[in-house]
Amino acid sequence: MLPRYELVYETYGQLNADKSNAILICHALSGNHHVAGHYEEDPKSTGWWDNMVGPGKPVDTDKFFVIGLNNLGGCHGSTGPSSINPDTGKPYGASFPVVTVEDWVESQARLADQLGIKQFAAVMGGSLGGMQALQWSLSFPERVRHVLVIAAAPHLTAENIAFNDVARSAILTDPDFNGGNFYQHGVVPKRGLRLARMLGHITYLSDDAMADKFGRSLRSGKLGYTYDIEFEIESYLRYQGDKFAAYFDANTYLLMTKALDYFDPARDFDGDLDKAFARAQADFLVVSFTTDWRFAPERSREIVRPLLHNKRNVSYAEITSTHGHDSFLMPHAHYFEVMRTYLDKVADEGAKP
Amino acid sequence: MSPNDISKLAIARPDFAAIASWIPEGSSVLDLGCGDGSLLRYLAETRGVQGYGVEISDINIVSCIANGVNVIQDDLDSGLEDFETDSFDFVMLSQTLQAIRHTEPLIQEILRVGREGIVSFPNFGYWKSRLNVLLGNMPVSKELPYQWYDTPNVHLCTLDDFEGFCRKHKVAVLERRVMTGGSEVNLLPNLLGSTAVYRFQRGL
After folding, report:
1. Residue B64 and residue B71 in contact, taking contact as beta carbons nearer than 8 Å
2. How far apart are CA B36 and CA B198, in angstroms?
3. Is A261 a catalytic residue?
């Protein structure tokens, strides 16, 4: 139980007079509140979904008031395991409670209360962000008009959980992890984080995308018969791993993957998603990508099906893309056209009575 | 859609008006191969229907969304497994039957999911088509606007063919509307009609 918490958020565009044009963007595993644009002092600080969100972009900030936040338990400014526990004067570390997608949505609703937003025009996100958007339609059916669920699934499969567990094991078994209280020891479980990210990254790409980008290319042009980096793919993965381990909090990574594992709206309904979605009222757009094998199109169909069975308004687009799970972050003409067209309709309709 | 647009659409697509006349206010409909969603939009605005379209083409998905129509991107030849039995008043297949690969299972699926089915298709028995073939060429017309080498149509049929299919597969035809250029055809429909619309249900 947390006595208090802070959430860091950014907003883009103008909230209209009746506060009906707000869109909440939920982030995925390693995302944060900095969705779009860049900071004045740092031109390289481009937001993680800058190609999607901004003036004249599919999520048009000339029309919508867009909110990005760092989820509770994150490591980009919101209260998380690396924050100081006011009771002890030390970082929470291992004592930070496990949070769930439901908790996040609850805390996001409190943020909406603070901003005076009674109902979102839309809540949207990709991957784990899409799961939060889905949960919005279940936790607060009357507070969201449209839910955009991109490259997501209604719950993880055994294979998905297995990948998460390997990633967590890498962190948990790093000698520098110190049971989660590494902050006091002045160390960071970088080796574990790095491995976790390398593994994660493989699941975000497609076989084709990797083959196209790296193939069997060698860094030095010839085989060295050593255990050093030889293939370009090795170099790329290690670079990504090192970059990530330098800024991301290991406890946050553990917590985010747990939230993914636990997400299952059908849990209280004997596994019946039709019953779980009976209380949803929003209109839905569900989008998947052909080469995404982490949350394949069939997983998105599992979201569409209960919505059809409950006669909800839903559209589903399956985007032909080569970039695997990462496709949802990539610029893609047809994908953007689907998003833009849908959100233009949302902007036109205004608030439902 | 303004009333003007609706009347224009009714003239451009006479099968739309025929279909709308069969559909009671507030029905639930599933439109298979819904194209740009204009039929569903037409029915939503003239009949207040609630429904979904199923469509395979990327461009049409965007058009359906722009038309404010629910659309599910899917290949009809993979069946209708996402839809529950008896979950729609009407399942429609407008100008799509001829492009379906697995015709028999799809008609069975239409009758599983819908209380009634509605199918419209170009009549290959229309005299102009017959004349074309007689003169030695595959027909190209407003209803069949393709060359033989680029057509998506794999199962063209005549009215007699379709009715024979229905008898063989225990499909009960409830009503039929045959048209040429927007006018209804009653005389020698298999020869003089260019487009046909059928309403049917499961036979005994």
Report:
1. yes
2. 22
3. no
Contact B72 A316 (CB under 8 A): yes
Per-residue b/e over B169-185, b at no fewer than 16 CB within 10 Å? Answer: eebebeebbbbbeeeeb
**A127 in catalytic set:** yes
Q: The pTM is what?
A: 0.95
Q: Which residues have C-beta within 8 Å of that of residue B40, sequence separation ≥ 6? A: B29, B31, B34, B49, B51, B52, B53, B64, B67, B69, B70
CB contact under 8 A, A318 and B50: no
> DSSP letters along chain B, please?
--HHHHHHHHHH-HHHHHHHHHS-TT-EEEEET-TTSHHHHHHHHHH--EEEEEE--HHHHHHHHHTT--EEE--GGG--TTS-TT-EEEEEEES-GGG-SSHHHHHHHHHHHEEEEEEEEEBTTSHHHHHHHHTTS----SSS-S-TTT------B-HHHHHHHHHHTTEEEEEEEEEETTEE--SSHHHH-SEEEEEEEE--
Alpha-carbon span B109 to B93, nearest angstrom: 12
Instruction: Tell me the one-letter amino acid at A59.
Output: V
* B72 contacts A308? CB cut-off 8 A: yes
Residue A61, CA distances (Å) to A12, A108, A207, A352, B147 in order? 6, 20, 35, 20, 46
Interface probe for B, chosen from A147, A315, A318, A334 (most Cβ of B below 10 Å), is A315
> B53: nearest CA in chain A?
A315
Q: Is A275 on the interface with B (CB under 8 A)?
A: no
Residue B187 and residue A140: Cα distance in Å, rounded?
A: 60
pLDDT one digit per residue (tens) for chain A, 353 residues: 888 999 999 999 999 999 999 999 999 999 999 999 999 999 999 999 999 999 999 999 999 999 999 999 999 999 999 999 999 999 999 999 999 999 999 999 999 999 999 999 999 999 999 999 999 999 999 999 999 999 999 999 999 999 999 999 999 999 999 999 999 999 999 999 999 999 999 999 998 889 999 999 999 888 989 999 999 999 999 999 999 999 999 999 999 999 999 999 999 999 999 999 999 999 999 999 999 999 999 999 999 999 999 999 999 999 999 999 999 999 999 999 999 999 999 999 875 54
